[in-house]
Amino acid sequence: MNQECNASKKVHLRQCHCFNLRQVTLAVTALYDKYLQEAGITAQQYSILWHSKELGPLSITELASAMNLDRTTLSRNITLLTKRGLLETLPSTGRRRLVQLTGQGQAVFAQAYESWQQAQQQLESRLGKKQMSQLEDLLAQLMG
Q: Name one Pfam family in it (predicted).
């Protein structure tokens, strides 16, 4: 009886889109974290550095909006990256604090970029170019 119940729970979980997408997110993040470990940053921190590099100085609120992240979650990582000297806070005018990539942050980003490319290739090799492209289209639809 207990075995049947456990099997039923597993079937139900496999049918839960939220659970499945969450599991994929965890697996993909772990893959990227593994590759980025050499550069000493996580996948989320890489994304913060990338956005900072591409968008230039932004307030934490603007960066959170651009990355579609909770401001509190972002602030925690910005604090860590600032302590490591990868980001810096510019002198503020009023209440708006701007954050930007430092020279050291650019160097770490450049090193991490190669690791990121390897993670990209690893993920693409699992699915193939065509299916990866289809997945990206489906994810874009889900994000609306």
A: MarR
Q: What is the pTM of this model?
A: 0.85
Class of 2-143 in CATH:
mainly alpha
Residues 56-82 as b or e (16 or more Cβ within 10 Å = b): eebbbeebbeebebeeeebbebbeebe
Contact (Cβ atoms closer than 8 angstroms) between residue 99 and residue 26: no
Query: At 99, which helix (H) or strand (E)?
Result: strand 98-101
| Predicted confidence (pLDDT) per residue in 51-77, tens digit | 999 999 999 999 999 999 999 989 999
Hey, what are 122's tokens?
A: 């690893």
Contact 71, 64 (CB under 8 A): yes
At which residue do the structure tokens 């913060």 appear? 48
Q: How far apart are CA 42 and CA 45, in angstroms?
A: 5
